Amino acid sequence: MASTTSSAVKCFKHDVFLSFRGEDTRENFASLVLVFGRACKDYGVQDEAKLIRKIVETVSQELRSVNSIFDEKLVGMDHGIGEIESFIGTDLDDVCMIGIKGIGGSGKTTLAIAIFEKLKNSFDGASFVDKVCVVSKTSGLQSSQKQILSDVLYHQGIRVHSVYDGKAIMKKRLASRKVLAVLDDIDHINQLEALACACNWFKSGSRIIITKRDELVLVAHGVKWIHNISLLTGEALSLQ
Ligand SMILES: Nc1ncnc2c1ncn2[C@@H]1O[C@H](COP(=O)(O)OP(=O)(O)OP(=O)(O)O)[C@@H](O)[C@H]1O
Ligand SMILES: [Mg+2]
User: Fold this and answer.
1) Which site among 32, 146, 157, 159 is 20 to 30 Å from 6 CA-CA?
2) Residue limits of the NB-ARC domain (predicted)?
3) Ligand 1 in contact with 118 (CB < 6 A)?
């Protein structure tokens, strides 16, 4: 890219950015490309043409994943997406924790995935932590802390020696990042304390979405916005 003429640079900017709406989206995209470029250099990719091809492949893959989730036949999802988006849009300068509650099989994870895929590119970093309650028993909560740090900071080599250590690293490293995190299937408050203990762990504008079968732990953790998936709504009855 260093040898590109100024008119070619102008054309490149026009072609790439035409389909991106809003300053934030352009900035996020540009910073992602920068991070990706540095990561490639770290892994020894020196050839610019190869680097650009890799960037195009990765961006195309991301765009495909956004579309594919909405290709599925999901019933009555619009109401849930709309309500959660309205929660996400309030208090933009604050960090906000949002709960999704509903009985087993009511679609909490499916809804969280739909929201995550729709919005993840508007944040500095995003992480979907699947089945926290299971992972906490099998690999320990430090493995979920490591996942969030790796996803958000785009760096795989982070070491987390203990949950206590993980909390300290998260608090220090995530404070400058606008984060979208989904903590799926929480069943104990110690999981929230390990993965999203306080709003001041994250930069303002961050959004933490937590799925849980009931609201007790959510309320105890101070989650104000809770979307309830009720199977008795008209939309859900159309599943029959
Ligand atoms: N709106 C929907 N339309 C069609 N299928 C759906 C919808 N929501 C969920 N499903 C399907 O229902 C099943 C259960 O959904 P999901 O795993 O999201 O439930 P859950 O509430 O997270 O359950 P659990 O509490 O056990 O984690 C999945 O197979 C999913 O594809
Ligand atoms: Mg689930």
Assistant:
1) 32
2) 93-234
3) no
